């Protein structure tokens, strides 16, 4: 029986462990914290109020992973949110985007008849492009240099899928991917509120503004209409289901067990040492940690080629996402009306607002008017708060990691929210702020980056984590990367962990 150790019990670590355990391997998961889940771990803000440490939505969770691991049999249920997103106004009705395209277009018509006519065509183009990209994001990226018959087959499949798009959509795909989301949306729409709302997902978790090149590709990656799904019971329900699969298949999960060193000799992995001095042997190690943390801090860099070390040093992380969790005694009243709060409430009224919020972080300061993405998960899942009470989750962009900014961030966020939801402060029972420094200290995320490496065109596809090593392996035989620092990247997909496990199984 092949012995494998999985380092880190976050989403991708547990996913990899589940696949390996189901394949009959002897799997041990080692997690330094006292609980599993990483960014998807649930915390109690106040008695009876629970929220995620990181993202609340899980619409990008791979359907293949859910089906292959039978996560629904272990209690996982995803609740679709509608509207998908809502942009309130301080002195207007706001704008909601519904799942139904015609209903969304009717909402847009209040602001612009031209945009209402364009929106269904825009959605069809986006759906066509993302339909082509989805297999690229789900499977290991094709290598630029064809090495085997399997590589040839994958390249042929890619070419066939590309041709099926049709000439017009093919041209649009190649043109749009390197664009900024601002340029892309400006070609389609005239209304500022609509453009600001659509641009939001493209900026989540990255140190890029709407006018940064490549953010159109991130918009396509995030797939706004799909991502608005909430796990019943919170993101911890995903973790609970994965842990159940691991244990049912005979795997072991150990918490409070931090790995201090990945042991290797002559370019081959041998096992790990823990901070308690324990030595564990394994012929395969899958790491759910960032590439830098795994290869430059835990592994022996002397076992790595110097050029490879240099490429690892050049990975940009730049975590700029903070999160404010609020326990509320009542549902807040938004001036635009509170009947459209079921999805993501977007605070960023236009592209200029979003760009100015990004401008501030470039100089190490918080914006006076931050870009906020708000979810009230207790609306769809009342179990997350006491009867009649609510939990509000606020993602804050862009948040530099420095003590001066951290100290005043919560007050600035609440000031911004009060512009749209007057009286919110009076409903707050308790609050909890997570800054990039907290994510680095508590969860081991390099520079507090949720994605284990910035999602930018030069750090995606076959260049993730570094060129030539996008197939999850490393120069140390038996050491495999399985976190979001690998293809396809961040977000609650579980794809890196699944593909890492499959890469490990293919080597044996």
Describe the fold and architecture.
With 508 residues, the chain is α/β, with parallel strands linked by helices. The chain folds into two domains: 3-35 and 235-315 and 454-507, FAD/NAD(P)-binding domain; 80-232 and 321-398 and 400-434. The chain contains 17 helices and 19 strands. Helix 1 (11-22) links the parallel strand 1 (3-7) and strand 2 (26-30). Helix 1 (11-22) packs parallel to helix 11 (236-248), helix 3 (101-109) packs antiparallel against helix 4 and helix 7 (181-188) crosses helix 9.
Descriptive labels:
508 residues, alpha/beta, FAD/NAD(P)-binding domain, 5-stranded parallel sheet, 18% strand, globular
Average pLDDT number: 91
Radius of gyration: 22 Å
Number of domains: 2
- How many E strands? 19
The biggest sheet, with number of strands, parallel, antiparallel or mixed sense and barrel status, is: 7 strands, mixed
| Intertermini distance | 11 Å
Biggest sheet strand order reads 7-6-15-16-17-14-18
Shape: globular
Low-confidence stretches: none
Oligomeric assembly: single chain
Q: Fraction of residues in helices?
A: 25-40%
